[in-house]
Specification:
With 131 residues, the protein is of the alpha+beta class. The protein is built from two helices and six strands, in the order αββαββββ. GO terms for molecular function: acyl-CoA hydrolase activity.
Length: 131
Amino acid sequence: MFDADYASQSLGIELVDVGAGTATTTMTVTKTMVNGHDIAHGGYLFLLADTAFACACNSYGPTTVAAGAEVSFVASARLDDRLTAVAGERTRYGRNGIYDVTVYRDTPSGREVVLEFRGRSRTIQREGGSA
């Protein structure tokens, strides 16, 4: 799925790891991602988290999409920050799932959380192609 995700790739998002219900993505904040307050625009932070979420919930094979998501902005990200998004499955039930994603940056004093994301997924295609 990530190989065909031109939106994420055009922003320099990299898929670092993927496993059953998990995924890790990274992105560096560039000048075009910084808003008038000299901080990263929240939409880019959401996109990084959403990409990790999408990779995690699609890791089982059937086509799965977002049914909804909520974010909490914890700290500002700035130009040249290297951000990491780690997604993990909380639960799957029927064709639905709940995933948590933490976006952080590494600092000399340790990891600093930038954003917390909770996504709800819906499988729209079962194994073999039928809905």
